[in-house]
From TrEMBL:
<protein>
    <recommendedName>
        <fullName>Purple acid phosphatase</fullName>
        <ecNumber>3.1.3.2</ecNumber>
    </recommendedName>
</protein>
<dbReference type="InterPro" id="IPR039331">
    <property type="entry name" value="PAPs-like"/>
</dbReference>
<keyword id="KW-0325">Glycoprotein</keyword>
<feature type="domain" description="Purple acid phosphatase N-terminal">
    <location>
        <begin position="47"/>
        <end position="135"/>
    </location>
</feature>
<dbReference type="Pfam" id="PF00149">
    <property type="entry name" value="Metallophos"/>
</dbReference>
<keyword id="KW-0862">Zinc</keyword>
<comment type="similarity">
    <text>Belongs to the metallophosphoesterase superfamily. Purple acid phosphatase family.</text>
</comment>
<dbReference type="GO" id="GO:0003993">
    <property type="term" value="F:acid phosphatase activity"/>
</dbReference>
<dbReference type="Pfam" id="PF14008">
    <property type="entry name" value="Metallophos_C"/>
</dbReference>
<dbReference type="InterPro" id="IPR025733">
    <property type="entry name" value="PAPs_C"/>
</dbReference>
<keyword id="KW-0378">Hydrolase</keyword>
<dbReference type="InterPro" id="IPR041792">
    <property type="entry name" value="MPP_PAP"/>
</dbReference>
<feature type="signal peptide">
    <location>
        <begin position="1"/>
        <end position="25"/>
    </location>
</feature>
<keyword id="KW-0732">Signal</keyword>
<dbReference type="InterPro" id="IPR029052">
    <property type="entry name" value="Metallo-depent_PP-like"/>
</dbReference>
<feature type="domain" description="Purple acid phosphatase C-terminal">
    <location>
        <begin position="351"/>
        <end position="410"/>
    </location>
</feature>
<feature type="domain" description="Calcineurin-like phosphoesterase">
    <location>
        <begin position="142"/>
        <end position="336"/>
    </location>
</feature>
């Protein structure tokens, strides 16, 4: 009897485990440890934390940091000798509590030819190593890598390795970069961590809550480190703030919005956005893409009802809808979720598609709990680390894929083809 009971239990247990496995076949990975990338044992004149970002149609801003005061000079050209041209720029630094940043150099180079490799050297020391970057193409296709809430952990490293293999043209980051969270040396570490990628392809970012770093009465100015280190091309888009800007790349108009600065209908950001959307020429840029940090649609239990999500959506959703924005990427929630086309919480075939991609790999880990049952407008949701690839094939078609970090392999776990509003006569104004 006892024996038979034992066998029955074993059987039940086996079936039970089998079923559990079918339901929870993928074991959610725990957070991984925070990395700190130290300063290499080099002299204080050595350029570090190099990253580049596109300025206008055919210029590139190159940013780097040295400990010592060195010339903000770039020698560059299409051949490995990197000496055809040279340009100088500006140097700045900032203080944050007892921390003083290194010398932050910025040089805008160009005009550059599309879709070729440029070689460049920083500073004026002959021993300065030659780096290279590739400019974006001048026509479709173009491939964007999209990662939110990147941070600097072993998961971040894994995500970056996968992105590196994707042969992307430009990276888009919807906020939360370093997770320095007031401890400024982590900004330097982040700069070193991303340099191998960010010095080779333009990285276009917008800010998240982790970039604010304001301490009432002690450090009252928000975004000090972010603005000093990640100068985006806001001046060129008529914006008065590094916290929101836009630019064109191939046939895509990309708008970076600021979730942590004013967005009400009387705010400078709102007025700028209104003007920017009015000036979009669909014949020139058939696609319009928007990035924000705090998502407007979200069926994860994390970050529900936050001011930046609810009020920014209430203020600006109509503008994006009327302008036929094709897609809105957000971060903040540490998971992946894709919605259908939606306006005012309802499926609407003439509204933007919303994708939350806040799963880059930061130290806070994944947001694993979801609102049950799944709302109809949510098509795919999963709490795993990963990155997205948005490949715009031509004026009408784009392929979106989400690549999950399954252990350390990048596995395509969600993919969808979709079409632009400019190619859809039923949604034209
Ligand atoms: C350098 O800074 C000045 C003052 O902020 C600005 O007017 C100028 O355009 C900058 N030059 C470059 C090359 O960035
Ligand atoms: C990126 O890929 C290149 C070529 O495949 C490789 O040499 C390089 O080490 C990679 N870098 C990183 C940071 O993964
Ligand atoms: C755009 O790309 C899609 C997908 O590859 C293709 O089916 C379509 O024919 C292309 N359109 C044009 C105008 O080339
Ligand atoms: Fe966030």
């Amino acid at each position: 009897m006892g024996m038979r009971m034992g066998v029955a239990w074993l059987l039940l247990l086996t079936i039970g485990i089998f079923e559990l496995d079918a339901v929870y076949g993928y074991v959610r990975p725990p957070p991984r440890k925070t990395l700190f990338v130290p300063h290499a044992e080099e002299d204080a004149d050595t350029p570090q934390q190099v990253h580049i970002s596109q300025v206008g149609q055919n210029m590139m801003r190159i940013s780097w940091i040295t400990d010592n005061s060195t010339p903000a000079k770039v020698s560059y050209g299409p051949s490995p000798s990197a000496n055809a041209l040279s340009t100088t720029g500006n140097t700045s630094s900032y203080n944050y509590l007892i921390y003083k940043s290194g010398e932050i150099h910025e040089v805008v180079v160009g005009p550059l030819n599309p879709n070729i490799v440029y070689y460049y050297r920083l500073g004026d020391q002959p021993s300065s190593p030659t780096r290279q970057f590739k400019t974006t193409p001048s026509q479709f296709p173009i491939k964007f890598a999209v990662i939110g809430d990147l941070g600097q952990t072993d998961w971040t490293r894994s995500t970056l390795e996968h992105v590196n293999k994707s042969n992307y043209d430009m990276l888009l980051l919807p906020g939360d970069l370093s997770y320095a969270d007031l401890y400024q040396p982590l900004w330097d570490s982040f700069g070193r961590l991303v340099e191998p990628l960010a010095s080779q392809r333009p990285w276009m970012v917008t800010q998240g809550n982790h970039e604010v770093e304001k301490i009432p009465l002690i450090h009252g100015t928000p975004f000090t480190a972010y603005n000093a280190r990640w100068h985006m091309p806001f001046e060129e888009s008529g914006s008065d703030s590094n916290l929101y800007y836009s630019f064109d790349v191939v046939g895509v108009h990309i708008i970076m919005l600021g979730s942590y600065t004013d967005f009400d209908s009387s705010s400078p950001q709102y007025k700028w956005l209104q003007g920017d959307l009015e000036n979009v020429n669909r014949a020139k840029t058939p696609w319009v893409v928007v990035l924000i940090h705090a998502p407007w649609y979200n069926s994860n239990t994390a970050h529900q009802g936050e001011f930046e999500s609810v009020e920014m959506k209430a203020s600006m959703e109509g503008l994006l809808y009327q302008a036929h924005v094709d897609i809105v990427f957000a971060g903040h929630v540490h998971a992946y979720e894709r919605f259908t086309r939606v306006y005012q919480d309802k499926t609407n075939n003439c509204a933007p598609m919303y994708i939350n991609i806040g799963d880059g790999g930061n130290r806070e880990g994944l947001a694993t709990k979801y609102i049950d049952p799944k709302p109809k407008i949510s098509i795919f949701r999963e709490a795993s680390f990963g990155h997205g690839v948005f490949e715009v094939v031509n004026a009408s078609h784009a392929l979106w894929t989400w690549h999950k970090n399954d252990n350390d392999e990048a596995v395509v776990s969600d993919s969808i083809w979709f079409t632009s509003f400019s190619s859809n006569p039923s949604c034209k104004q």
